[in-house]
């Protein structure tokens, strides 16, 4: 992905992730990196040889980063075919995501390993035509059947380091985040070894007590998977994983902000307790995201909500990052600047890519969004290249 020439964007309101720059300008080099950003008028020498885009006051945000996504738009990362990665990347780019962790599900080892090899190839190719594949989130199979959610119970089992090593090899060491239930047999050694390898360890699909969760934090757990969902809930005599995530400052909490998985009042509560710098908004989107209501094999979509057929068990989400932003703003009453880190800086940190993505700063990838005054998406850029544009966006 290379630009043919540098591009200067003028007269925009830039939310860099650290501050807001009004009537600002940003220069992107031909290789898709940010050269400069600020409020000072650029000298003519910076404009020479560059294409100039007048943003006319529109809003520019860092691209959203989704560390938990299984598919979307009919594309299924769990199927693991190359076209599923490109299709998922295009679908989510059209909703503001510029980078994501391809997320597995519980499946037989051979199937998971094949998916990991395809994810590795998609990352190495780097030509999805949409959002960047930045690595893998391994969700399962080392989960507690008592909190299995929509997973097939027969696929779940305690940690197996040999199996994990095979997954790491298949992925080309691109696994950046793993969800596990550390209370299972062998959990301590498993967590400690992964943390030593630099893999972010998340507690999820777990029936751990508050005390067990606290121990797991000492071993190296730093993240919770889709907080409140698939975990021992908060009770005043048994705070569980949910309570530990709220109370322990070392834990960053994922959040599906679709108003279904987590009640709007609980969304507000999580932001009030943890603050935006410790909330990581995700979609947990599956292939049916963006698809019409109806039956899809063993799942059914009803009013955008996805359930296992014949049950009230949620089977992933149909949410997008942009829709989640609108809902978080509505549910919390907070400002855009206040909640933005949960969509950009925090997921970049959790995925270990904050040295190159997550904020608009010189030297980082030019991953950014142009939005109108209603915060509706007009254009998505990944490494300086436009990968999505609405019909209303001027050329």
How would you describe this protein?
The protein has 395 residues and is an alpha/beta fold. The chain has two domains: 7-61 and 358-389, Urease, subunit C, domain 1 (Roll); 64-351, Alpha-Beta Barrel (TIM Barrel), CATH 3.20.20. It has eleven helices and 21 strands. The strands form four sheets. Strands 1, 2, 3, 4, 5, 19, 20 and 21 form an eight-stranded mixed beta sheet that branches. The chain has an eight-stranded parallel beta sheet with strand order 6-9-10-11-12-13-14-15, sandwiched between helices. A three-stranded antiparallel beta sheet has the order 16-17-18, with no helix packed on it. Helix 6 packs across helix 7 (240-247).
Q: Would you count the extended β strands for me?
A: 21
What is the rounded Rg?
21 Å
Instruction: Give the helix level as a range of percent.
Output: 25-40%
For the record, the CATH architecture of the largest domain stands as: Alpha-Beta Barrel
Report mean pLDDT, rounded to a whole number: 95
Q: How many discrete domains?
A: 2
Which overall shape is indicated by the principal axes computed on the Cα atoms?
Answer: globular
Structural class: alpha/beta
CATH third-tier fold name of the largest domain: TIM Barrel
Strand content: 25-35%
Task: Supply the CATH class of the largest domain.
Answer: Alpha Beta
Oligomerization: single chain
The CA-CA distance between the termini, in Å, is 19 Å
Low-confidence stretches: none
If helices are DSSP runs of H or I spanning 4 or more residues, what is the number of helices? 11
């Amino acid at each position: 992905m290379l630009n043919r020439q540098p591009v200067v964007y003028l007269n925009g309101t830039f939310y860099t992730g650290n501050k807001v720059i009004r009537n600002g300008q940003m220069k992107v080099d031909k290789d898709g990196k940010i050269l400069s950003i600020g409020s000072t008028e650029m000298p003519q020498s910076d404009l020479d040889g560059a294409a100039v885009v007048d943003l006319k006051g529109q809003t520019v945000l860092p691209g959203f980063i989704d560390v938990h996504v299984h598919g979307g738009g009919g594309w299924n990362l769990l199927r693991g075919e190359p076209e599923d990665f490109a299709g998922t990347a295009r679908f989510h780019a059209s909703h503001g995501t510029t980078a994501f962790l391809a997320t597995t599900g519980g499946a037989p080892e051979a199937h998971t390993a094949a998916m990991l090899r395809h994810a590795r190839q998609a990352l190495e190719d780097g030509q999805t035509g949409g959002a960047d594949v930045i690595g893998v989130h391994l969700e399962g199979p080392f989960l507690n059947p008592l909190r299995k959610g929509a997973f097939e119970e027969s696929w779940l089992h305690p940690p197996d380091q040999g199996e994990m090593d095979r997954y790491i090899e298949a992925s080309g060491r691109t696994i950046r985040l793993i969800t596990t239930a550390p209370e299972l047999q062998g959990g301590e050694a498993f967590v400690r070894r992964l943390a030593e390898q630099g893999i972010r360890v998340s507690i999820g699909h777990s029936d751990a007590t508050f005390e067990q969760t606290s121990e797991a934090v000492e071993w190296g757990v730093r993240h919770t998977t889709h907080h409140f969902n698939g975990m021992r809930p908060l009770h005043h005599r048994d705070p569980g994983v949910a309570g530990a995530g709220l109370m322990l400052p070392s834990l960053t909490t994922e959040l599906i902000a679709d108003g279904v998985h987590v009640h709007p009042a609980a969304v507000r509560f999580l932001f009030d307790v943890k603050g935006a710098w410790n909330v990581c908004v995700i979609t947990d989107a599956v292939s049916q995201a963006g698809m019409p209501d109806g039956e899809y094999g063993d799942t059914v979509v009803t009013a955008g909500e996805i359930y296992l057929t014949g049950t009230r068990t949620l089977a992933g989400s149909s949410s997008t990052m942009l829709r989640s932003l609108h809902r978080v703003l509505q549910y919390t009453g907070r400002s855009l600047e206040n909640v933005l880190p949960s969509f950009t800086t925090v997921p970049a940190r959790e995925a270990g890519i904050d040295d190159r993505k997550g904020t608009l700063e010189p030297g980082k990838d030019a991953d950014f969004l142009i939005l109108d005054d209603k915060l509706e998406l007009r254009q998505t850029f990944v490494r300086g290249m436009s990968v999505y544009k609405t019909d209303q966006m001027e050329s």
